[in-house]
Each structure stands twice: as structure tokens, then as C-alpha cells.
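Inputs:
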Amino acid sequence: MLKADEWCAQQLGYRFRDPALLEAALTHRSASRLNYERLEFLGDSVLNFVVALLTFQQYPAAPEGDLSRYRAALVSSTSLSAVAGPLGLGDQLRLGSGELKTGGHRRDSILADSLEALFGAIYLDSGLDAAAEVIRRLFGPRLGQLPAAEALKDPKTRLQEEVQARGLELPQYMLDEIGGEPHEQWFVASCEVPALGLRSTGEGSSRRRAEQEAAQGVLAALRRAPQEK
Amino acid sequence: MLKADEWCAQQLGYRFRDPALLEAALTHRSASRLNYERLEFLGDSVLNFVVALLTFQQYPAAPEGDLSRYRAALVSSTSLSAVAGPLGLGDQLRLGSGELKTGGHRRDSILADSLEALFGAIYLDSGLDAAAEVIRRLFGPRLGQLPAAEALKDPKTRLQEEVQARGLELPQYMLDEIGGEPHEQWFVASCEVPALGLRSTGEGSSRRRAEQEAAQGVLAALRRAPQEK
């Protein structure tokens, strides 16, 4: 395995002046009190700013809502761990014994956090331009491959826009049922567009999920229905 | 009334090279297609980054959770409009006729958005250092007057920490009732710490608010109860 500073130079194209910053960025709190948590806080805001700027420049005509969706897609935990994985960041992490066996979602979130911490560490080590350069190299390819803003919208947003475009009253949501144990509650919600006579229900482990599923049902019905004049 | 560039120089200590940027930052979408929305997107991320850095430097020993709470308190819409108000930003805004009569919460949120847009505009006009300087001047006094991180925690977080500190099982939340019309639903939730025999209910216009109120009730009961050995 590569030593951390060689790994960083090869994969991130950046060589640290202060190796202690690199070491902290790669250390989970289960391994040491000198860990990545504060760097992650800082790196998260560096990443958000740089990605906001990249999307702002890349999409000069996009409205604010689309820019927010693009940025959210790029800096999501899923996107971050997908960037971190191929870099081999996982092999460089210092984890405590309890976390060593961690798999799946938990491990992805540690990868994402450590990657943010690296951006914070590079910022402290050399300033914003250096951090922005690394972020641009890692996220640039994803920036050019974003799905249309429309596809990044959730069903409730899309339904609201469709209904507004037809000049109708907004969809109404109602929570119909809650069941299950305190730690595993289950929600049933309905969505209705009275002016179109459309109604659908959805369910899920949160109210939000149930409403999104209900909105998806109404959207599907709307597309099957003949267009009004 | 001062002209916009004089106002900006006096109140923000910054003079724009490109007056079109200043004008856009002060223009609501109800007044023109050339409005502050994209600048607000950019300015929000500039502000977040600069405030993250200020809190990181000001509190060198604070854990990440506290830093996040400090930042959230500083960049909240409430904080932003409280900063914007005394600057007289409201008098400089260009609003469409429909928004001119806007009052209260709606107006505060426009002030907050336009202030963020100004930070984005300064960044585009002169770069990060200039924007950071203005942000530091406006938010520095607030940074030194933050309440203790503990006081910024919400009741659910505080209750969870109290219960964990005693080595007990986590509080359980249950949604008991939902009532009201679709657009005005009303929630009743309960919070229970079985190991302490404490239970309380709360209500509110969202599930979250109801749960927070219930947690507050249990916290209060916990403080009245004699400490266990």
C-alpha cells in the first residue's frame, strides 16, 4: 500500500506541506481524538462553495432552483463516496477496531466525510485555489454529465409545476394513516388534484416518502389522461 | 434616499466596479428578469464558507456539532434579516408592484435573500477576499455574542444527550393524532423515556414541532425529578 502522502499526490494531485493535516483528514474519530471531524466541517463548506461556483459558471442561464439541484446532486453523500471509492481512499483511512468491519452505507458515509475533510485540509495547507483545483479535477467530469434539472426534481415538485402550468389549484396532501411501532412507524398519505378529479395514495416509512409516492401516482395518472383543451 | 452605490459604500464599505451587479442584487424577481436569484445562490455559498471559516478560527477546540450549530445560527434567515434591517437594505430594494406591500415574514425573507445576493455580487465583482471582508464586518459582532452551543440545541437533541449520559435507552417518539384540514393539519406527538417512567405530549403544525414540544416536556419533568443515584 502507498504511504498517505504518495497516495495523495498520485490520486488528488496534491502534496501536503503539513503532513499532520493529511493524517487528521484520514483519521476517523474511532481511531483518535485528532480526527477529521473539524476538517470535515470546514471542507464541506469549501466543497459547497467551489461546486456552487462551478455550476454557476457552467450553466449561465439556469435559474436558481436548477443550480441548487445540480449542486445538491454533486455534493450528496452518494456522489462523494462514488468519487472517493475509485481513488482508493478507503485503504488510507485510519479506523478504530470497532469501525474496521463497518460495511455498506456506514462505510460510504465515512468515505464521503473523509473526502470532505481532505478538501478542508488542503484549504488550510495551501488556500482556496489549491482546494478548488483538486475539487475541479475530481468533480469536473460529473458536472458535465448531470441529468436534466427536470429529472432531479422530486415528484411533489414536478406535480406542483404541472398543475401550476395548467393554471389550476395546487395539489392537496393529507396524511391518512399512521401505524406500526414507535421505532418503525408507517405512513399512508394521499394526494389530490380536485380540479382534475385525480387522487392517489402512497405509503412509506416517513410522511415525506408517502407523499412523494402519492404525488408520483397522480403524475402517472395525469400522463395517461387525455390533455384538456 | 441615497443612490444604491453610495448606500453600498457607506453601509457595506464596498464600492462596486460593475454597477449592474449591484443593481441585480437589489432587484426582486417581481421587478425584473434581471434579479437577485442566481446571485443569491452564489452568495449563499460564499457566506456559508466564510462563516464556517470564521467559526472554525474563533472556536479552535469546538467539536464539529457545535461549529455547525454556530454557523446555522449566524446564517439563518432570522440572523440575515436582522443584519440587513439596520443597514437600510429594505429602502434600496426594487420590488414589483405586487410585492411592494409585502410585510412581515415575507419581507424579512426578501431582505435575507438580497443580502446573500450582495455577497455573491461582491464576489463576482472583486473576488473572495472582498466578500469575506464585508461579511466579517457585518457578522463579526454576532460571532462574539453567540449563546453557548448547548443553548442552540433543540429539545430532542438535548433530551437524547441527557438520556445517553445516564446510559439509558433512547427516548421514543410516537405520533398520536393528526387533525385539521389538508392545508392546516395539526399534529399531536408523545415522547417517552420508559426507563425513567417519563412521558409527555406536544402539539404543533408539523410532526417535528409536536415532537420537539413533547421532548421539552420530558426535559422539564427530568429537571424537576430528583436525580437518581
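The first helix of chain A runs from residue 4 to 12. Flag for discussion at group meeting.
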